[in-house]
Protein 1
Amino acid sequence: MFAEAGVPAAVVLPRSTADVVAVMQTASRHGVPVVPRGGGSGLVGAANAVDGVITLVTTRMDAVLEVSATDRLAVVQPGVVTRALRDAVAGLGLYYPPDPASYDWCTLGGNLAMDSGGLCCVKYGVTSDHVLGLEVVLADGRVLRTGRRTVKGVAGYDLTRLFVGSEGTLGVITEATLSLRPAPATPVTLVASFASTAQTGRVVQRVVTEGLVPSMLEVMDRTCIRAVDDLMRSGLDRDAHALLMAQSDAGGEAAVAEIAALTRICTDEGADLVHSTDDAGEADLLLAARRMAWPALQRLGSGLLLDDVAVPRGRIADFMDGCQQVAVRAGLVVAVVGHAGDGNMHPTVVFDQTDADQRTRAHEAFDAILALGLELGGTITGEHGVGRIKTEWLERELGPVSMSVHRAIKDALDPQGLLNPGTMFRRAAVGDLPAVASAQA
Amino acid sequence: MFAEAGVPAAVVLPRSTADVVAVMQTASRHGVPVVPRGGGSGLVGAANAVDGVITLVTTRMDAVLEVSATDRLAVVQPGVVTRALRDAVAGLGLYYPPDPASYDWCTLGGNLAMDSGGLCCVKYGVTSDHVLGLEVVLADGRVLRTGRRTVKGVAGYDLTRLFVGSEGTLGVITEATLSLRPAPATPVTLVASFASTAQTGRVVQRVVTEGLVPSMLEVMDRTCIRAVDDLMRSGLDRDAHALLMAQSDAGGEAAVAEIAALTRICTDEGADLVHSTDDAGEADLLLAARRMAWPALQRLGSGLLLDDVAVPRGRIADFMDGCQQVAVRAGLVVAVVGHAGDGNMHPTVVFDQTDADQRTRAHEAFDAILALGLELGGTITGEHGVGRIKTEWLERELGPVSMSVHRAIKDALDPQGLLNPGTMFRRAAVGDLPAVASAQA
């Protein structure tokens, strides 16, 4: 979609909490808005500058301050790259699950601000499920500590969860205490192809109702399958309408049993092909198709609008079919890739950016997909956030009472409205900028 | 501890959200405070009346409105008894994990308000880990909906988590959408006894560092062991200084392997006795000792002060030993029972209520245990909440910045200060009541 991208008055790269305090004290004294920014991998423009702001980039605050195997936690600064934390704890047999697609370059601060997800969510939840506590610099420069080092604790309001996912509108996260898990077993991987999306929808439904908890359950539609095959020549079944990819990291016999149950369900529902493997190399090859979906789609058109709708798991097939109806009505291609296991789908509208008519139709299709998601009992954002591009849709999803509670909390914590103006809340037409296309990561 | 218990001006028992709206509209129009109350099983006085308030009891809003196997969720009214939801979903092979000790009579509304825990937390988390969305009546009578039916979603602030655990100070929860899990396998159970608490501390530490995730891991000290044995004549090892109880519900071979690993760790650390069983009846007998700990302790003294401290898991042995030092200094018995797996300990100070000197020393001991918890990096409440009895300790744990953020949020959502006065926040000396002892559930 379109996200404003202005020119900041200054870009600061703090190295410490004290630096951030100084920035916020100066900003609040002079009434200058501040846009916090991590690795810049976000998809909704939440870290884009607005003219005249201070952009506060946290990438130099990149220390892993502590890893405790005894308490199964890590204390990190916000600029640590997500992958770097994974690597830092792997030697101790520990595991930090959240794995956004950009985890090679996105930062934990950004993950926290947006409450990022990834492929692991179906079993392990999202970023907020792994946060024990935060240090946050408030709009006026005061330093707040939330949460604790213990796994349990109910002293006071859950401020940790309030700041996680608040998209930089309530404070600047300067430190986080993250819970870790034991490293999972090497997964067993399954791939299945189907002649219809309805079949994959039924498979997901049965996975849920039969009580399976795979560690990954992804789906790609025919457009994605063909785009990936065009790019990689990987011999995918180009006639399939949907490809399902699953993993179980339950370990040993349990994983084998879980994948066997999945195989049975896929076969029952008429899969054209089901293949599973416990060989890590072969699994990587199979999953490369999923990982390459976005690059492959980028070759299909000069413009891509990546959507991010989550629907109840029983409505996945309805949603995928609805997306194809949207595509037909718009006369455009809509490719669907998604985290089927948790109902978080990423339909992508493909169009020619140089064609004004296609641009209009693409945005109409993008909106129609959001409306479809809400109609099916879903949400306008499963994991990418609201940012600048979905503020009106947020109002539509939440309604006036919730929006007024949101504003009351925002006003209580940031009365001058300094933090990340235009994100989450619509701005009152200040310095309207020409819209700039920024559709990809 | 001591919790105020006043006389309400009125007690209302609404049957619907509309009834609650009417109560809150009337209350806000006339400036009358409202104390929400569920089953009344809370341990910190959070649902106690204050003179002149309206007590709003939700027990007649007791419908399970929906159970969806497809979306693995339930929609409930707040007055549903926790156990009743468990029973309602069991037939579908589903499971609602939170299991406070009072789950036969406490209500989900109270669980939500307090973010209750239980024995399951070590593997499955607390109440807030199972909430997808809420309906809340705000102080002014407006109806707010938070969250969603999808498992993933990041549209707006996490208001769901803000209301869960807010102890009735921000709104009245009138409906909740709760996520369910597949029913776990029948557990394998282990009991081990030790000659020192330090040994059990080391066992817990190794469980954490070796990556085991039992579905239960409880500890009892010698005072509890003897009290339970006196009550039940169950042949417990009266010379043991600590008894550890664990379960694995990983299923089949995985559960056997997990309990075998636990057995090895217990033996390594010098357990006097380790016994495990996959027989459900025998397991019930073994666990009866844990369930009877509180009734057994109630026979030891006319007064009991039940504490609720969570410490980092590496500090459990330090905490248990520290409690014994507190007991020696106070010249009283302090019995420790606890959810060792998540570091949430319940030391109980036993005293004679008719003895003024013992009462004083008991309260000093209670406070000394909270101070010890904070000193070890823990929290003053792992699962019981702040209520009326720990408001000063909340300030001590959170500090002035966090308290001012708490007050800003409270003022933003309840500007008249109508909801649950005296809970979580200290009251400005209004109608000081004589303190009433209410130390137990």
Note: DSSP finds 13 helices and 18 strands in chain A.
Protein 2
Amino acid sequence: AAAAAAATAMSLTSDEVNFLVYRYLQESGFQHSAFALWNESYLGKSSVMSGSVPPGGLVTLLQKGLQYVDVEWHVTEDGLEVDCDDTPTLLT
Amino acid sequence: AAAAAAATAMSLTSDEVNFLVYRYLQESGFQHSAFALWNESYLGKSSVMSGSVPPGGLVTLLQKGLQYVDVEWHVTEDGLEVDCDDTPTLLT
Amino acid sequence: AAAAAAATAMSLTSDEVNFLVYRYLQESGFQHSAFALWNESYLGKSSVMSGSVPPGGLVTLLQKGLQYVDVEWHVTEDGLEVDCDDTPTLLT
Amino acid sequence: AAAAAAATAMSLTSDEVNFLVYRYLQESGFQHSAFALWNESYLGKSSVMSGSVPPGGLVTLLQKGLQYVDVEWHVTEDGLEVDCDDTPTLLT
């Protein structure tokens, strides 16, 4: 049932991703990158703007993504835990 | 047990996040933002570089993050599904 | 008389200088710099835009500026040439 | 003689022009453009760097370039002033 629920989870729009990234760039002190992205992705014309992206939103969501991957690796579809000590790596 | 496994999931380094973002900017055609980030975050000096970030890596991981949030919302710690039709929104 | 004429020469507006620089950046292949300047200096909203800056306009004008400096160094106000082999340097 | 002197005036190297432009961008508050140009033109590896470009160097030299053009318009090769009230325009 959890898997079923997950399967219907909402998707992200491009504007939402861009805005998460933009906020990340700002918060990381990458001002030039943030400026460029603002102009390249036309964020100023996006309706996402007024929304309140929580501080650290991009990293928080990425971490949850990793947790999801971790569960995928270590739990079967029946909910049984796999006896496995491997940790998923980000870049593969 | 799944929750326990998730709780020990690895964390992301700054370089890894920056590289995921850099690849996203490139793949999205935001060449100026990618150029700026490359220089601002000193990615050229990072050891992450040679790693192979899969295409669409950032968005894929963000989507999994959303799925994780969705599970958090709709499944209790005991693994029971909550009767709830709400969908978590990204920007809150 | 020449000096008098020169003294009344027109001045450059900020937009004109920015546009000369923008074209220079473009022609030099500095696409990221050109993109940033376009956005930072609001050139898109400038009335200078439609004007036709000749190719190489910035460098041509800088070269003429150097020639003017050279004349200033080697010709007196009376139009007499100074016996001097020095060449003015750009960066002083 | 003045014309002859001018004809032998030094020329500008690419690095010199880039550095004049870089300083102009900085002084004008175009920080993102300056950052991009620094990286795109590899100014950090240029030997011009330590040189002291005077404040406002680019605009000063452009203005002198305009004065030179003005003289070209209004003075014959014999040094006689032409009876002409036209002012040269920058962008043609």
Note: Chain B has a mean pLDDT of 82.
